[in-house]
């Protein structure tokens, strides 16, 4: 009996020691998921022994970083965009479903998305139409609802979702397209938001471990973390 207890104790100590020596992994992510990814990184480091060294940008910038540096080991972003632009993944895991929203500045009274075509909205911010997930989704939505022509002279194209939020908060634009994840972290700084549930292609937010990095200790710890129940709850909290 004592021998069994001793054996279990040794195994526990070995597992604890393996996590105590934190591994590190370089993870690039779409900027619109910054708040969620930061929360995920805290869980991964605390509970799974892997530190996420993070970088953020629109997915065009993320892809360029991956190709130019060769240092990025995992990426978080839209499955459709990543599958077309590369890189090659050894594996990928679904984190959640991305959701497009319209947000507006304080002091403005928006009743429906169609209000962006009226005089209520003089400037409408949107992330990069080709390189940002929610810029593309916003563009698809406008086209599907026949509103592209009505708002084309109001559009202010910026690089990322957080930049849209920044322009809204400062009052430099009246409204803009964002995602639910970033918006939920900024509710006290904006006038309000409307969740847009149709009119654009489904957005599957995944993490992919880049081929060639899948067999490292850091990748193993990251895999356990990113597929855990804790991370699913974090994604849910952030609107996915």
TrEMBL record:
Signal peptide bounds: 1-22
Pfam families: SBP_bac_11 (PF13531)
A Gene Ontology biological process term: molybdate ion transport
Recorded GO MF terms: metal ion binding; molybdate ion binding
The entry's keywords: Metal-binding, Signal
Protein family membership: Belongs to the bacterial solute-binding protein ModA family.
PANTHER family attached to this UniProt entry: MOLYBDATE-BINDING PERIPLASMIC PROTEIN, TUNGSTATE_MOLYBDATE_CHROMATE-BINDING PROTEIN MODA
Protein name: Molybdenum ABC transporter, periplasmic molybdate-binding protein
Organism: Denitrovibrio acetiphilus (strain DSM 12809 / NBRC 114555 / N2460)
């Amino acid at each position: 009996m004592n021998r069994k207890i001793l054996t279990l104790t040794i195994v526990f100590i070995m597992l604890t020691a393996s996590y105590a020596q934190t591994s590190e992994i370089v993870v690039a992510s779409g900027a619109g998921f910054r708040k969620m990814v930061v929360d995920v990184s805290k869980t991964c480091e605390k509970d799974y022994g892997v530190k996420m060294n993070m970088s953020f940008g629109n997915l065009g910038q993320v892809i360029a970083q991956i190709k130019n540096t060769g240092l990025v080991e995992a990426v978080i972003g839209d499955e459709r965009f990543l599958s077309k632009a590369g890189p090659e993944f050894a594996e990928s895991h679904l984190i959640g479903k991305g959701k497009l929203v319209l947000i507006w500045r304080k002091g403005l009274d928006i009743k429906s998305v169609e209000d962006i075509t009226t005089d209520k909205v003089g400037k409408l911010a949107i992330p990069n139409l080709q390189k940002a997930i929610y810029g593309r989704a916003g563009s698809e939505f406008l086209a599907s609802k026949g509103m592209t022509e009505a708002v084309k002279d109001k559009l202010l194209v910026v690089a990322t979702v957080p930049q849209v939020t920044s322009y809204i908060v400062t009052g430099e634009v009246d409204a803009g397209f964002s995602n639910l994840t970033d918006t939920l972290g900024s509710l006290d700084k904006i006038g309000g938001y409307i969740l847009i549930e149709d009119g654009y292609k489904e957005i599957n937010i995944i993490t992919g471990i880049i081929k060639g990095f899948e067999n490292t200790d850091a990748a193993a710890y990251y895999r356990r973390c990113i597929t855990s129940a804790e991370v699913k709850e974090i994604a849910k909290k952030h609107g996915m």
